[in-house]
Amino acid sequence: MTKSLNNNYYNREEDEEKLTKDELIFFKEALEEKKVKIEKSLTKTNQEASSHTQNRCNDEGEDASFEITNNVNTTIVREQTKTLNQVNRCLNKIQTGLYGICTLCEEPINIERLKVKIFTEHCITCREIIEKQQQY
Length: 136
Prior knowledge:
The protein is mainly α. It contains 5 helices and no strands.
């Protein structure tokens, strides 16, 4: 992203898509809150996984149950880590003045989309393109 594009986005006078200082503060606080929740959840999940590992039994039924629980926890941790990384990138973008700009087309992301998914990095159009490409 070029500096001029960034300046054009945040310094436009009469643009409805411009994020105000108050909106940026709102998104920053919401992102920080989401980050804390995810970190707490990851800590709890890791503690539970540790506890399950220590309490394993040699019974086949319990081993099967443990494996299922472990697989579910691994999936949860993977998704939470992915979301945490997105949140951290968005917090960095707020600091650098790039939050709310699509990483693909470099156009402003609609504020309503940001309100629904505060850690989104793509506008609706680019997100649809990504989803179509993932289907193939």
